[in-house]
Specification:
Blueprint (H helix, E strand, L loop, with lengths): L1 H14 L12 E11 L5 E8 L12 E8 L2 H9 L5 E3 L5 E5 H6 L3 H9 L8 E5 L3 H5 L11 H8 L13 H8 L6 E9 L2 E10 L1
Parallel strand pairs: 1-4, 1-5, 5-6, 6-7
Antiparallel strand pairs: 1-2, 2-3, 7-8
Length: 207
């Protein structure tokens, strides 16, 4: 009797459960690059590059939109940006995080890294870099050779495209280890917008 009672209780509880909340691909915005800067009124100024699907993949035809919000936390900034769009943000395709140079030099990056690690949809093999003068200007630069939104930056930082001894590669998991370990310094490649191109030939070393 006890087992049957527990079974009926479990079945009745299942009836009150909501759906899994799966969002169709047409109802998602894929976040390709995330930029983090110092805000003027709040601590964080977060920028998201959202890819806009297009049937054409010719050079210079990549379509994307960059939205920006300020808040005291990154999570709050993302929630505020959700009120400006009609689709759900998907961070599963986020390949690059760009941190503003001023933010990286003057702010503690521990809270920023904790947010990245706690989101289950962010990959620990994502690439990290510093944007000079800020991350927002890097995200808004649209190279003419770009075929897919943010692809030029991904190819350069990952080494899948150009091979240059001046471009350092740093992953989220390794940067997190360096920030929280003693005896090794953390480093990030610096990205600088130059007209319609992005130049990567310097690095920032953080103690």
């Amino acid at each position: 009797m006890v087992k049957s009672g527990l079974l009926w209780l479990a079945v009745s509880l299942l009836l009150f459960q909501s759906a899994c909340g799966f969002k169709d691909i047409d109802n998602r915005f894929f976040v390709i690059i995330v930029g983090i800067d110092e805000g003027k009124e709040h601590l964080y100024k977060v920028s998201l590059m959202l890819a806009i699907p297009s049937p054409r993949t010719e050079p210079g035809e990549a379509k994307s939109v960059v939205i920006t919000k300020e808040a005291d936390t990154i999570a709050e900034a993302v929630r505020l940006m959700k009120s400006n769009v009609d689709k759900e943000f998907d961070f599963g395709q986020t390949k690059v995080f760009v941190i503003g140079k001023s933010f990286a030099e003057h702010q503690d990056l521990s809270d920023t890294l904790d947010w990245m690690f706690r989101r289950r949809d962010i990959q620990q093999i994502s690439l990290l870099a510093v944007g000079s003068p800020d991350a927002e200007s890097v995200l808004k630069t649209n190279p003419k050779s770009q075929r897919i939104p943010g692809n030029d930056l991904i190819l350069a930082l990952s080494g899948s495209g150009t091979q240059s001894p001046y471009i350092l590669r740093e992953y989220l998991f390794d940067f997190y280890r360096r920030i929280h370990s003693h005896g090794i310094d953390a480093y990030l490649p610096i990205i600088e917008p130059e007209e319609d191109n992005l130049v990567i030939n310097r690095a920032l070393v953080l103690k």
